[in-house]
Design goal:
Layout lengths: L30 H6 L4 H17 L6 H26 L7 H18 L4 H26 L3 H24 L13 H8 L2 E4 L2 E4 H19 L1 H11 L1 H6 L4 H27 L10 H11 L12 H19 L7 H24 L2
Antiparallel strand pairs: 1-2
Helix pairs in contact: 2-13, 3-8, 3-9, 3-11, 3-12, 3-13, 4-5, 4-6, 4-11, 5-6, 5-11, 7-11, 8-9, 9-11, 12-13, 12-14
Length: 358
Amino acid sequence: MSTTRQAEPAVTTPPAPGPGRTDGRTRQRSMALRLLARPEVGVFLGAVAVFVFFLIAAPTVRDGGSMATVLYQSSTIGIMALPVALLMIGGEFDLSAGVAVVTSALTAAMLSYQLTMNVWMGVVVALVVSLAVGAFNGWVLMKTGLPSFLVTLGTFLILQGVNLAVTKLVTGNVATDDISDMDGFEQANALFASSFDVGGVQVKITVVWWLVFAALATWVLLRTKYGNWVFAVGGSRESARAVGVPVTFTKITLFMLVGFGAWFVGMHQLFSFNTVQSGEGVGQELIYIAAAVIGGCLLTGGYGSAIGPVFGAFMFGMVNQGIVFAGWNPDWFKAFLGVMLLGAVLINLWVRRAATRR
């Protein structure tokens, strides 16, 4: 009688993972790829490259006064680029941002001078007007479902016409009257347009406000519930609404933040030059949007940061002043901006693909 023995299954011990051997399902990306996934990394490297280039091409840039001028130019763009970037992360953009700056300044100047008020009354009313313009853009967008391009293009044309027509009607000219001798001017000038000394170099207060606003915007995006809402509505409005995100509130407040930025920059312009030309501001909205795009924000929404537009605005200021310091024809400025914008978009596309490639 023969007996059969059933073979027992072989027990194998999996080899211990050696260095560099990981399960593909749990593979960790390298530190370099994780850094590349950050939207501000590409523009930071670009800003460094532009800075080094002009240090070599325009030795005048190395002077402290020249760098203060570069930072000032960057700050006037960067203060507006920040709320524009937040709005773009939220999936929208605002073509009226440039003329809204002038609307704010004109409102404050004419109310203060023509009605013989203290300048602070004009400043407060201008803030209300700027926030109202932003709220109007957001409300129309949410009520009609129209693209923000069409809504804000209409607002752009309305404000452009109102700026010129009302200024001529009230002052009889295309510019406002000088308000430098009015009550409250010195205090307002100190807040919006003063300078302070750093090592013998005069630095504009807008540089400080620019960095403060950037830090605040970064904290809001990364550490608050509202920041999560901004990314959510930019990624998918319907999905965000399905999980309880207040989409209407978020969109309207983002447009109102752009209005706040327009008010602040408008006040700076008013108290820096004491008067405002009603036809200014046209085309600046493209500069703000371009600074945000160069800073890593997507036109499709849901992606970006507040730090990226800081470097994007710095690149604009560096190129704007660097061309002058190098003694080149300033007519090339827009050409440089176009190259920078196209290059930044291509670099950001490559960075995102490299960062997500497994």
